[in-house]
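Troubleshooting entry. Yesterday's outputs looked truncated, so today I'm pasting the complete records for two proteins to confirm everything comes through intact. If either block looks cut off, that's the bug. Protein one:
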Amino acid sequence: MMSLRVYRLLLFLYPVGFRRVFGAEMVAVAERHWARQRAGRRRGRGIWFWSFLGRDLIRTVPPAYFASWSDELFSVRRRLGRRFSRGTPTSPPGRQSRPGPGRGEIFGAMLRDVQIALRGLKRNPGFAAAVVAVLGLGIGANTAIFSALNAVLLRPPPFPEPERLVMANLAFTDPGGTAEPRTSPWSYPKFEILQSNLRSVQPLAGFVARRMVLTGSADPARIDVEMVSPSYFTLLGAHASLGRVLLPDENDPSIPNLVAVLGHDIWHTRFGSDPDMLGQTVTLNSHAVTVVGVLRPGFRGLTGKAALWIPMSAASVLEHPRRLTMRFSHWFHAIGRLQQDATLDAARAEARRIGETIDAAHRWPTRTELQSVSLTPFLDARVNPVARASVLVLTAAVVLVLIITCANVAGLLTARATARRREVAIRAALGASRSRLVRLYLTESLILSGIGGLAGLLVGTWGIRFLSAMWPESLGTASRNLQFVDSSALVLDPTVLAFTLITSIATGVAFGLLPAVKASRTDVSWALKHDGHGAGPRQGLWQMLSGRAVLVTGQVAIALVLLIGAALMMKSLARLQRVELGFDPSHLLTFGYEVPRSDPTSDDPASFHAAFADRVRALSGVRGVTFGCLPVSGGCDRTVVTRIVGRAPIPPDAGPVVGTQIVGDGHFDVLGARLLEGREFTSVDRADAPPVMIVNESAARLLFPGEEALGQRLAISLGRFTEPGVNAEIVGVVNDIMYRSPDLGTTVEVYLPFRQEPLPYTNVTVRTDGNPTDLVQAIRKEMRTLSANVPLDDIATMDERVAEATQERRVIFNLLAIFAGTALALAALGVYGVVAHAVNERTRELGLRMALGARGPEVVRFVLLRGLWMTTAGVAIGIAAAVGLTRFMAGFLFGITPTDHSTFMIVAAALLAVAFLAAYLPARRATTIDPLDALRAE
């Protein structure tokens, strides 16, 4: 009989009215059914019993609630009765079955509810406007942040079956297993082995992102280019709208094919959508490249920003003559598609076997690491972990703001429902059921949330524009350049619009359900006798506060969590901005350029750089010019020390790792750094002069602990210094300069003069007397005079670059501060509203207290003590929640812990002070009540 007892409990899933009318009959039918199963001695009778009655429960519970909603229990029972028994049950005595509601009746009832709700809101336009404004703010903030979440994490890449795409990585493993395997790009000979043998992943394509100089038909420009193997376009479903894509034989390593496929955007903007573009040549890094096709609109490659595609075979001309034949030149990545009948585990097993073949054929002669092949799903590899963490933190914050918004609006509706008790009582006295009253209130809530959703779309549009202006480029750039999410990706697309619609409906139900249920429980007799005013029967001030106080307590707790998060970010940013950079970033203009290898000026890059520096130095307002890697830019080239004169020989590739900076004359004077010992580089440090270098403090401590670094001689694995017997003398020691993000600290650096190790591409730093950007046009003119084919690239002031180094944290802080401020204002409004409403409802009680001799301070204390308890409870809950939640922000903090005690205490005290002021204002107003007027009003 256990099954029957469980069945009786499950009947509580039905509405009360439905159970009252049909519960006994349903139990009787279940008992007869169970008896038949027992009499038949069927095996598994419990299964048969529940298969019969379980289906009835699933099929009838939703219609029963609908029937309760429509006050049509008997008609629905008539239509569903046959599912309870084989015969058609009769209605209870005295009850006549009524015909079921048609679609017209249901629609008419809904329309009447809407009309009643609109009339009620029209009578209170101020209330409606306040609710819509609060909802618009909460829904709009969620819409804006969801657009970022959608762009970074949810929106699928524009490629066919992206879930079957995999990244194939070359991996190096320590034979001892003491270190994590490290992944590496591919060299072409190793990639050929992988491409020929990995059957479960086909097609397989190589790709690499480059920035190249495009000249002809317009001013020179550096554009984003992808070098790819021909199967790249088939793999990603890219098709040509004009001409063709690359052919398989155009990737022959022995035959450089200088052909190109244009993206639709550059074909439209730079070449005017010329239909005769096929067969014409464009100049890329001073090499003529023939256009063979134009892609369809919308395709921007794996990087998300490519403008032009060329075959990988062109690298032997555009980059290095032996680029495709060097076994240990690892320079591009690989992506493929799993075959339909292949699984990722099977493909990984096959890749491991191929890795052994690659390791045997191309073992690194000076390293003990083993080579292997690893496969990673593309959807995992393309997402930047920093972007994911940033957007998730902001999403959590904005969801908390939406919860506060719902709680605040629920409090407003609860207060309004209290004022409408007489109206509700009259409706109930005239026969309106409780479900009918709840439906009426929910209709009003849904109307408000719908209008609030429209306002949220407007606020969300502004929010997206604001977020786009703040969006840091690095936030959407993953490793391998697989995903580039710029501000243009933040749009109100159908997914975001659907989210806004669902959020509007969900918030309408969330903030409307509690007031609706509470209003439907109105004591009809008391409300009619007291004209709907007063605290209600058996309600003191404490009981009056209880319903809305829970909502306000939650608002305070959530506001405290957001405020603590914003305060932690603010404190972290303040400490980050106080980090010593090692140079003076003011009045510095920075940019880069590259001398194309086929340009007549490229035979001697050092002479070109020196000539350009002389021209810029002669401009009015220029104090100095230098070359070299830019500080706070993320770091530059790194290599190893191979030899220190006077020390024991260093094993191959076992020397200390150092950063290498190739810099100009007077480099440290231009930057505003401090030369601690020795001298700077000058024009005497020519290519035919003895090699020299300067080291920073960290390098001096690492390489020469307890010794004088000045005058020491060493060699590094770079250019001419790899030659036997070539050792550079240390002629200077400089202070540490921050080349990475300030939170990562300084690095070990050695500096080389640009005349002794010239590179075609360099960064330029110009110190000026005034505004650095005023000199941009003059510097461009000097470059055009020197060479018309060399564009200036990535122009920015050093102050802007320093700001960019902390931009991710600044964006998160700014948005958290906005959300926290909004939450604080809503929480304070909630406290004020609860206390003010309580004072208004208890006017007679407060007047009586004052008539009996209570003084003003006593009345204020009486109201405050019963208003601030919810703030104190909210602060306690908020601190406990913040201790657990702020640990997810640890990756964004610098110099403090996620549970910094001083921050917690200061924020809690500030929130208590704001809540005290919000409660004091209505408490102070209570002292102005005239006892006689209060008593006379009752």
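Protein two, checking that the full record survives here as well:
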Amino acid sequence: MGYGDTPASQFGSLVRAYRGDAGLTQRELAAKAGLSLAALRDFEQFRRRWPRPNSLAALAGALGLNPDQTADLAVAAALPRQPRGLVPLRHPSGHDAGLWVSLLGPLDAWADGTPLLLGPPVRRAVLALLLMDPGALVRRDAIIDVLWGDSPPSTAVGLIQAHVSRIRRSLNSHNRLGGSQRVIDSVRDSYQLSLSREEVDLLVFRDLAERAAAARAAGDYAIALECYESAVSLWHGEPLADVDLLFGHPGITALKHELTAELLHYAEVACAVGQYDRVIPRLQALADEEPLNEPAHTRLMIALAGSGNQAAAIRVHEDMRRRLDLELGLNPGADLDEAYGRVLRQEIRVGSSVREPARPAVLPDAVQVPRQLPAAPRCFTGRHAELAVLSALMERDLRETSGVVIAALTGMAGIGKTALAVYWAHRVADRFPDGQLFVNLRGSGPSGIPVMPTDALQGFLTAVGVPSARIPPDTDGRAALYRSLLADRRMLIVLDNAQDAEQVRPLLPGSPGCLVLVTSRNRLTGLAAAEGAHLITPGVLTEAESRELLALSLGAERAMAEPGAIGELIVLCGCLPLALCDVAARAVARPGLPLAPLATEMQDARGRLDVLETGESATSVRMVFSWSRAKLGDSASRMFRLLGVHPGPDITVPAAASLMGLPLGQADLALAELCDEHLLTEYVPSRYSFHELLRSYAVEEAITRESEADRHAALHRVLDHYLHAAILATCFLYPSHTKVGRTPPQPGVILEEIGGRTQAAEWFESERHVLLAIIGKAAEIGYAPHAWELPWVVGWYFDDRACWQRLALAQESALAVAARLGDLAGLATANQHLGWLRFRLGDIADAGHYLDEAINLARQLGDLRLRALAGLRRAYVLQAQDRLLEAKVQAQQALNLYHTIGDPRGEARALYAIGWISSS
């Protein structure tokens, strides 16, 4: 904004001429120079007045210009780069420390005072798209549309990923968040920029504008003026002025409108206090840039008249009236005409001002009574135990005067902590006659920038009636004043969505009488240890409570009409309140459709979170989960992703260490961090599990952010872990068990420590469901030799019909895997085990078929032990078919084989079989 003109035709004509000399089409030149085709056409057709500096260099290089030609092109493109009427950029830190990214003008970045190289035009455009709304998700297909339009290359996704990786690496080492959070995060097919408000000029601008608006509302015009002045001074040209690929992008237009709005607010305040000269240059620049902007010309007229230049003010109106008539056929609007009338009547006196409200010399005697609670949730149900605990704490607080009572609701994302806190706070609001304070501390949220305690304290102090001029500038001073004002008062303070205990501590009152209710995804153990906070961790709803919640949301009649579908939705949502609300919202949006198809949509675990997508970051289950995941360190974040590879339902520290390929200590720390953020639960000592929707999200994260090779390597390690642990446990419990070939475990596998029969039996029992799930996974994806070895090893322990059925299904899949690989040993093992399982399940005919195949394969392999075992089991099948002579022959052959290989236990089993058959 505010640049002057330069003859466009000279530069465009030169570009067109040089392009003709080079024999290039417009498309070819645009591709070589890294420009958009539209930008090049605008240059050559004189619609665009000047190139950016990097575009000029790119064009010269692509055209192969000599130094003289390049100089001619530069002269034609020469422009004054300083915008009219805007103060040059002055970053508060002077770029001397940390990261600073500027987009309110040319795109630039500094690290500790040193400019950063942001790469070629395409990479700069990717960064610019992320910066236009920091913290918002930018879809990959939107980036592709901007960069390549309707003709993206086949490698577009890979190119964008590479550019994002380079940008992330360039910025990440300098940002204030350090290693705790990456500068750019990948969320499925989108990207999210996470920089603090001190690192991006746009965020600083918005923060200053908010402060100015608050000061203006409080009547503190002096502070409002300074904040507005600092805000508009951050603009030093058109946003992203040198990113050619974004020329005409609606996001840039929106940013320009944002500046215009704040500049007009600034002008209103300045004119109200008689400081007209302060805004005239900026208003003049805005009026020149937007000749049909009536509000800008209205403010300019008032400012000129107030500064004593009535003639200039009248000319502004006349020029505006003429332009409106010629270009739009319109008359000036009411505001413009009203200002014109005031100028003509000389009602705007030179140097006049509206006095600021008188400030009290001391703090007010009577503090205002704030009522800041947000609206209570409409469909709230259950939570009787938690409500009772909170009410008991309040009653104890009324009786005792030993200190501030702090209750902290902690738990996983979507569990309903805020709804519970607000619902209870409304129920007991009348018990706190001095008011209720509420603040969203944004510990987890789309912005990624938690509220600083200093800012939260300012909001609280303003709410209780402290003039902004009397609020100390530092955190300690504000906290001291806050504690002083709340002493001897009874107030309820709700600190919602806290990041950690450190963010909460400055906001705690210093004396009894107030109750503090905190919600957080962090476990807040430090707050419990140091401040005596009472930690309450709500779980998911019961099935009955879930039905009640859906009935409240959908209407009782619709809920009662399809009880089966309601029950299925409850199971698929895992009784998670946010998920239930999301699925209800989707059903409400389709009132004419039955609920059964919605439940069918959710059956696919991989698409379950898509069904719960609302399009809003605050209510989308996937997005709410992502805020918790974004707070994790690198190790914990990767642990969370790889837990999506593990089939569940729970995991121990050694298994998690094997999954990650980490030492036990590091895996333990990563699991603890996940528990701290309630992404994982240690439901019994050293065993961890998570909600099924979190598992679905972990699966998505693994697929999106881990390579296929890394996922397979992790699964291979964890399969090795369970296989070798099962072999060890079986050796203690069944010493005569026919061994499988022991393949050495992969590097990084942590072996279980099992010291005897008791520990072996305990291990099998605690890992029963995990082993069945891991066997199914190995068979499903065809991992060899785990697909047939795991069912064979654990089958010696599992002695119930349900397990036999699952093991039989796994071995059927294993047969297909071994056949595909041509693995005779695998085929023999799977056939003999499947035959025995079929026999135990009562399928005699199939059992004989599989065991005969196992005997033939063992004979081909020369494996006498396996041949003996399969033959002995075939003997039992034959005995069950009343083919006693054949059964006795098979048992005798097994006895001979066991004698040959020197296995006395095998011989004993064969002799027992011969006796059993003979007695039949």
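Both blocks look complete. Sanity check on protein two: Confidence is low (pLDDT under 50) at residues 1-8, 79-94, 176-180, 352-367.
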